Amino acid sequence: MAPLKLYYYPPCPPYRAVLFAIENLKIEVEKIQVDLSKEEQLKPEFLKINPQHCLPTIDDDGYIMWESRAILAYLVNSRAPGSSFYPLDPKKRGLIDSRLSLDSSIMNALGNIITGIYCGETTIPQNKKDKVYTLLNHLNNFIEGKKYIAGDEITIADFAFLSTFSSLKIVGANVAKYKNLVDWYKRCESVPGFEENEERARALIKYISSKSGFKGEPWDQ
């Protein structure tokens, strides 16, 4: 089988989530960079692959899909069906799906902040911060007494939220009071792909501050 083709942009949080799955499932991959800063996602050759022109996008021997959380589920289902990363048990899978949905909400809230910074905001509106913190508080409470985001084993919910959490930290979110999440993040340091995720998160602040000069100063609560 040909290597999985992965269309990506390094600072992009959803790409980093998919990279965790690729690393942990040991998938052979051909990476094809699409530079968002040069609007390469709008070139006709990429639009033929993905008319929604979003990243990451995969081409698995002709099967093309996008949306990072869907990709995470697909990669486990196709490479390691029944794996603890996304188990077949409907209750375990249901919890993972629920956590993925919450991660999506947190990422959308963060995305509103990132878009504002990229468009020139040098300070973050309080209502945008409050939205992020409200959602983080929910997740922090949900994982009380658990090792990972959806229980006591690493799952694709962890892959997704690792990229989100590292991005929150790098743009200045005050995460220190969320003890369960801080402990979880420390626990994940041994997960394959953790260091690369950290490195790519640092590239994110450089990308989004290119127009506003925002440097990731800590947010107030």
Describe the 3D structure.
The structure is a single chain. This protein is α+β, with helices and mostly antiparallel strands. It has eight helices and four strands, in the order E-H-E-H-E-E-H-H-H-H-H-H. A four-stranded mixed beta sheet has the order 2-1-3-4, covered by helices on one side. Strand 3 and strand 4 form a beta hairpin. The longest helix has 29 residues. It is globular, with a radius of gyration of 17 Å.
Give the tags.
221 residues; alpha+beta; four-stranded mixed sheet; 8 helices
In a nutshell, what does this entry contain?
This protein has 221 residues and is an alpha+beta fold.
Write out the strand line-up for the largest beta sheet, numbering strands in chain order. Answer: 2-1-3-4
Shape: globular
Mean pLDDT: 93
Specify the number of helices. Answer: 8
List strands and helices in order, with pairings:
Layout: E1 4-8, H1 13-25, E2 29-33, H2 44-49, E3 57-60, E4 63-66, H3 68-79, H4 90-118, H5 126-142, H6 156-170, H7 179-187, H8 194-208
Parallel strand pairs: 1-2
Antiparallel strand pairs: 1-3, 3-4
Helix pairs in contact: 1-3, 1-6, 1-8, 3-6, 4-5, 4-6, 6-8
